[in-house]
Design goal:
Blueprint (H helix, E strand, L loop, with lengths): L2 E2 L13 E3 L4 E5 L13 E3 L4 E4 L14 E3 L4 E4 L13 E3 L4 E2 L15 E3 L6 E3 L14 E3 L4 E5 L23 E8 L3 E8 L2 E5 L2 E5 L8 E3 L4 E5 L12 E3 L4 E3 L14 E3 L6 E2 L13 E3 L4 E5 L19 E3 L19 H60 L1
Length: 403
């Protein structure tokens, strides 16, 4: 394993085609003279070391043969050098897992053959906005801007530019690589191929691809601060193999146009604020192997049949409104939550109570009336008897006095 700093002597190697120093313990600043090698160098791979500081000006105004730059897994800081826009032959640019702080490099859209752009896990920030023109990134197949600080809406307008993702490539499987043909004295013509490799994260698991198929297309915008809805335009990327928009603040429903992505193998929309039902057209995606919509606000039945029956329960958890056999929650058993009595019910109860009270009062009134009448008769009869007695007594008294 190599350690220490890169010697400036590398800058004097005018016939150096590949500089591959990955997986060592190299440290220090990247030498500024690396830009002198861009006219001959085809691939610069310094990933997985301990380099610090800023990225030097790599591609000068005199043209460059660089096809691949991989500076990932270091401790690089600062902004991306704008001279990268001079690397007109560049097919892959990977700077993931550093401490770079910059806005989205929309100016790299002028590179005519750029296929891979990976900015994962840095400190890129701000609103990506719209492309300056619809010729930006015409050959882009892999874009990974996950684990950064991008804000605003998803850069859906770039979908108009990503023509390489719009068509299903029917050609035989090939790999993205750097092919170098050169002649060695006494041996003859020699062809060297160095395949591109990439690490892709899905459902929180990193997967290493030691070789990338030429037809492979991939979008990862997860773990940022994107908000708003997922545009139906994503359904136009019919050549897309993997889409990861998880861990953002996206709202609205899952676009049914995603059912048009017939070669899609991985779809991760988890940890957002999506609502509504899972679109039924998604069950037509016959190649879908990884699916995750957990921790949203989705409701309704999980699509049945085909690959959906093979997905893990964890792919749907955190959505109390979802139902289906996978969750052991039959949709027919769903009962609406108990509601407080309505105004009409309260009125009905009030009327019933009033009617009951009225009947009691009426019964009491009638009973009182009958009792009053009876007592009245007794009083009248008693008083009549008393008056008769008084009258008779008076008459006897008068008779007695006369005598």
């Amino acid at each position: 394993m190599l350690s220490g700093e890169i010697s400036n002597m590398f800058c004097n190697l005018s016939s150096l085609y590949f500089l591959y120093l990955s997986g060592n313990a190299l440290s220090g600043m990247l030498p500024k003279c690396l830009g002198n090698l861009s006219s001959s160098l085809y691939e610069l791979n310094l990933k997985n070391n301990f380099f610090r500081g800023s990225i030097p000006e790599i591609c000068g105004n005199n043209g460059s043969n660089l096809r691949m730059i991989d500076l990932s897994y270091n401790k690089l800081q600062g902004q991306l050098p704008r001279s990268l826009s001079n690397c007109m032959m560049l097919e892959g640019f990977v700077v993931s897992n550093n401490k770079l702080r910059d806005v989205f490099p929309s100016w790299l859209g002028s590179l005519p053959v750029l296929k891979i752009l990976t900015l994962q896990q840095n400190e890129f920030y701000g609103v990506i906005g719209k492309p300056k023109n619809y010729l930006a990134f015409p050959k882009l197949q892999v874009i990974d801007i996950s684990f950064n600080y991008f804000t605003g809406e998803l850069p859906s307008q770039y979908i108009f530019c990503w023509n390489a993702m719009k068509e299903i490539n029917p050609s035989p499987s090939r790999y993205l690589n750097v092919t170098l043909n050169y002649t060695v004295t006494k041996i003859g013509r020699v062809q060297v191929q160095n395949r591109y490799a990439i690490i892709i994260t899905s459902k929180g698991v990193e997967r290493y691809y030691g070789a990338i198929l030429d037809i492979f297309t991939f979008i990862d915008m997860s773990s940022n601060r994107f908000e708003g809805e997922i545009s139906e335009l994503f359904g136009n990327l019919k050549g897309l193999y993997s889409l990861n928009l998880s861990n953002n603040m996206l709202t609205g429903s899952i676009p049914s146009s995603l059912g048009n992505l017939t070669v899609l193998e991985s779809l991760d929309l988890s940890q957002n604020r999506l609502s509504g039902q899972i679109p039924q057209p998604l069950k037509q995606l016959g190649f879908l192997e990884l699916f995750n919509v957990s921790h949203n606000d989705l409701t309704g039945p999980i699509p049945e049949g085909k690959q959906f029956s093979a997905f893990e329960t964890s792919s749907f958890q955190g959505n109390p409104g979802l139902c289906g056999d996978l969750l052991l929650k039959k949709c027919g058993d769903l009962k609406p939550p108990s509601l407080p009595p309505s105004v009409f019910e309260e009125n009905d109860n009030s009327e019933s109570l009033f009617e009951l009270e009225w009947k009691v009062v009426l019964i009491g009134f009638i009973s009182g009336l009958l009792a009053g009448v009876a007592l009245g008769d007794v009083v009248i009869i008693t008083r009549h008897g008393w008056l008769v007695k008084m009258h008779c007594a008076r008459r006897r008294w008068r008779t007695y006095r006369r005598n």
